[in-house]
Amino acid sequence: MEDALEKKSKKMKDRGLHKNLKEYSQRNGRPRPPNSHALQAGIKAFLESPAGHSLLTEKGIDLESLELPKRFTIYEPLLLLPANAFTAPPAWRVIYAALTAEQQEDLYASIARSFRRLGVTHVAMNAPIALNNVKGAENRMRSPAGLVPLYGDFKNSRLDSLSGDENAQPSAEDLEAAFWVQTVQNNGIKQTWAPLYTMFSRGNITEKARILGKGSSANTFEGLDAASLGQNVADISVVDMYAGIGYFVFSYLKRGVKRVWGWELNGWSVEGLRRGCIANKWGCRVVRVHEDGHMDFSISALVASLADSDRVVVFHGDNTFASEILAEVQRAISEREKWSPIRHVNLGLLPSSSQSWDKACRVLDFQQGGWLHVHENVDVRRIEEKKEEIARELTALRVRVYEEHGISGASIVECHHVEHVKTYAPGVMHCVFDMRVSAPI
Ligand SMILES: C[S@@+](CC[C@H](N)C(=O)[O-])C[C@H]1O[C@@H](n2cnc3c(N)ncnc32)[C@H](O)[C@@H]1O
User: Fold this and answer.
1) Residue 258 has what DSSP assignment?
2) 254 Cα: distance to centroid of ligand 1 (angstroms)
3) Where is the composition biased (Basic and acidic residues) (predicted)?
4) Where are any strands of DSSP class E within 201-264?
């Protein structure tokens, strides 16, 4: 059985499908990939050991009728278990709760063994990203502080390297020594990250598909084709105010935009973005922007050394400086060559991206306008209302920007589409509002 599994897995790998298969989560009766029983097999192997067997006898539970958890995700070489992997179903919870620390270690090792043929060397348990840290302050970098390493050497532990401060920046040595994982999504786009320090949201896969032009006709992502842009997609730039490890950046690049200007606070994510660019063969430049807004690199030096192959420039710092810095970049580039106007701004922060709406209105091309993609968590009963509220606020912000720059004409900001990305919590939907910002009229 295992040999057949391995053969099938190898065949899929050869056909380039292997990673997509691993992205698969066993839910909702969708067809199962051939490795779907690997978690149960690993747990069963442990329960068949003398220690496991005596526990089953003690609790009066029969292994054959015991229901075991099934769900897992592989981000090679990490096996990631859901937060409830050891608390449901109920009979399994009873057994797991009775395990000694040593027995737990044996269980994790047995699970890891079961996935070894699929490239797994580490096991961890996932946890939702907390919006606040243990001290009550905002977890601005959305660090996955709750992720629990279970098996394997995770190198520098969070507590050793960062003294428990999840907002601290990593040193070059931290980055070098850390445990990195990768996955392939949406048409072969590679993504890399250090799971102890950076969140990864698989739920955004549909939004990435939309940017790639692979959505349905009902949820088209406007403004990435010549007809809706009024110019070639290869001649425009995009700003991602919350670039992360490149979740959306890579989709825009694959769609063919000339360059993405990204902003990202978290040094771990910036490094993931840089490594991901290398893996996908896109040039990437990283510019550190310190807390007071000063940069390690002068803008003229950056612009002078920028090659066409540098498809991403990521500013490692707070996007509060985005409009001033990008205005200078535009001036410096325009002196040397044709500037590729910024026609899209992605605003991917939950529960709300409103803190950067003003900056977004300032960086979007003044003459042609474009699209702002506003991510928000919204009460499902208030989505229509929210749409109007965002349009009103963005219109007011854009008008103010025109006034400040002496541009005559009004601005129309309209919502052309609301994408329901995923249910964030009961009654709360992660929505993306595609806001069309007109040229001055
Ligand atoms: C939700 S996460 C990743 C976003 C990604 N677009 C996604 O949807 O999966 C938000 C990211 O924004 C970064 N971030 C939060 N506030 C920021 C700010 N003011 N400037 C730059 N980056 C910021 C965090 O470090 C985090 O990596």
Assistant:
1) S
2) 21
3) 14-25
4) 237-240, 259-264
Torsion of CA 328, 334, 337, 343, to 10 degrees: 80
Write down all domains in the chain, each with its CATH number in brackets. 2-124 (no CATH), 202-437 (3.40.50.150)
Question: 141 in ligand 1 pocket by Cβ < 6 Å?
Answer: yes
pLDDT score of 27: 35
Mutational pocket test of ligand 1: of 132, 140, 242, the residue with most ligand atoms within 8 Å of the beta carbon = 242
Residue partners of 363: CB distance under 8 A and separation at least 6 = 239, 322, 323, 326, 327, 342, 345
Asked whether the predicted pLDDT for residue 17 surpasses 70, the reply is no
Give the position of tokens 């008008």: 399
Paired sense of beta strands 283-288 and 413-425, if any = unpaired
What's the burial of 402, exposed, middle or buried (CB within 10 Å: 0-12/13-18/19+)?
middle
Picking from 415, 390, 417, 406, the residue whose alpha carbon sits closest to that of residue 440 is: 406
Tell me the pLDDT tens digit for each residue of 24-44: 433 333 444 556 799 999 999
Asked if 342 and 277 touch (Cβ cutoff 8 Å), the reply is no
Give yes or no for a contact between 250 and 193, defined as CB atoms under 8 angstroms apart.
no
- The alpha carbon of 243 and the centre of ligand 1 are apart by a number of angstroms equal to 6
Does 151 contact ligand 1 (Cβ within 6 A)?
no
> How many Å separate Cα 160 from the centre of its chain?
25
Which helix (DSSP H) or strand (DSSP E) does residue 416 occupy? Answer: strand 413-425
Among the listed residues 106, 70, 102, 103, the one whose alpha carbon sits nearest the alpha carbon of residue 88: 70
Residue to probe by mutation, ligand 1, list 205, 349, 353, 363, most atoms within 8 Å of CB: 349
Among residues 70, 65, 59, 126, the alpha carbon closest in space to that of 99 is found at: 59
Structure tokens at 169: 């920046």
Ligand 1 and 359: CB distance under 6 A: no
Q: Which helix (H) or strand (E) holds 272?
A: helix 267-280
Give the pLDDT of residue 14: 35
- Return the minimum-mean-pLDDT range out of 21-25, 210-214, 361-365, 398-402: 21-25
pLDDT score, position 168: 76
